Amino acid sequence: MEKNNEENKGVGSFPKNFWTVIVMEFFERGSYYGVMSILSVYLVLSTEKGGLGFSKESVGVIKSTIQPLLYLLPILSGALADRFGYRKTLFFAFTVMSAGYFFTSLFTSYPLVFMSLILMVIGAGFFKPIISGTIARSTDKSNSTLAFGIFYWTINLGAFIFPLILVPILKEISWSYIFIMAAIGTGWLLILNLFVYKEPQKPESTKSVYDVLKGALLVLKDFRFIIMIVIYSGFWILYFQMFDTVLWYFTDYMDMKPINDIVNSVLGIFMTNPEWKFDAEHVTVINAGTIILLQILISKIVKNTKALPTMITGIALGTLGMGILAISTHAWVFMAGIIIFSIGEMTAHPKFISYVGLIAPEDKKALYLGYAFLYGVLGSGIGGVLGANLYVHFVDKLNNPSLLWFIFSLIGVVTIIGLLLYNRFIAVRHSDI
Question: Which of 2, 134, 140, 365 has the most neighbouring CB atoms within 10 Å?
Fold first, then answer.
């Protein structure tokens, strides 16, 4: 009877610290995705329209710097947090992050904006491992799956609500207000950290920065793992276009009147003369909303399928979604492309995590899962610069966006072929893969 109760722990079993970090995650991710939903548009928009007027190539350099940092920093910051304490690390993270957002709202020169965004991402990189670490130490085997499910939903809820509701309102006043919103959204968490958050019990053993770097060398020697990461990062080159080239394409080409008319007709039931407008910030809302609605269903469908074939299927869907953008500039075609891409993402990525767990040596599973983030370093590092330069050449100069999406679709096809060859010639034979 006692064992049965342990197995059925629910929401009521979580301590206050769990809900505290869930609130932190909601506001931090909401602030981050609120900014990222418009950042690439704001940076290239002309000064007459309230933007900063940077070139797309220079924005590509910014994005190819800050996004890889966001994936790299948690490895080191996690080790530092274990040494110096979670609360102290959170104080540093929220202070630096909030300052980065605030300075971005003030500055207009390229070097100062670049440095402000680096400051923001340093704070975000130090924040990331604290939340998952606190959840891991606030739960046990009986409720950790539910806990991380709530955590994942919270991320997407923040990514859904902030760009959908707050960003359009603030943008009408001034683009800089979006960054001030993010500064407040992360800055107030210092109060929560001071008065509500409790330092989790210190783990029995902690890793030094030296141990972390030593672990990296061990992982990098595993050629199967590294080849897998390099191939899989091809899909994430496509993913990071959702925050850059897709937003530029939307701003330059898309007429969303069919969507606006339907939404306003529904809103008209509740208010007089609604004037809702689908804008750039709502592109990332489609992605988050699709995940919120369908992730549980997709997870059930692929629950018992093998990892590599499922990953290939997901990447094929993502590639199809990107390719659909080449067909037409019609609003519904654009929506279909983003939705199908999102379904591909939520199909492929959980199975990628599962695959890493399967191929990792038994005594190094945690180490391998920690370094699985390298796909994001490569995908964002290449995707930012590559996407910007391809957009300038094929869209701005040649006025041929269809060719741009065709090229990105080819990257998806190459990724699929790479995984098929990897599965045939390199992958470890495993009954569960």
Answer: 134
Q: Could you give all domains of the chain from N- to C-terminal order, each with its CATH number?
A: 15-197 (1.20.1250.20), 207-433 (1.20.1250.20)
CA-wise closest residue to 298 among 359, 352, 353, 342: 342
Kindly state the tokens that stand for 307.
Answer: 């990892």
- CA–chain centroid gap for 108, Å, is 26
DSSP string, 300-313: HHTTTS-HHHHHHH
For the stretch 34-46, what's the b/e string if a residue is b when 16 or more beta carbons lie within 10 angstroms of its beta carbon?
bbbbbbbbbbbbe
Residue type (1 letter), 258:
P
Per-residue pLDDT reduced to its tens digit, 311-334: 999 999 999 999 999 999 999 999
Tokens describing residue 413 = 């096809």
Tokens of 274: 């609604």
pLDDT, tens only, 147-159: 888 998 899 999 9
pLDDT at 354: 84
Tokens found for residue 341: 């891409």
Q: Are the C-beta atoms of residues 63 and 379 closer than 8 Å to each other?
A: no
DSSP 126-172: HHHHHHHHHHHHH--TTTHHHHHHHHHHHHHHHHHHIIIIIHHHHHH
Average pLDDT on 175-201 reads: 96
Specify the pTM.
0.93
- Between CA 143 and CA 166 the distance in angstroms is 33
Q: pLDDT, tens digit, for every residue of 407-423?
A: 999 999 999 999 999 98
- As a dihedral over the C-alpha atoms of residue 181, residue 184, residue 189, residue 190, rounded to 10 degrees, the angle is 160
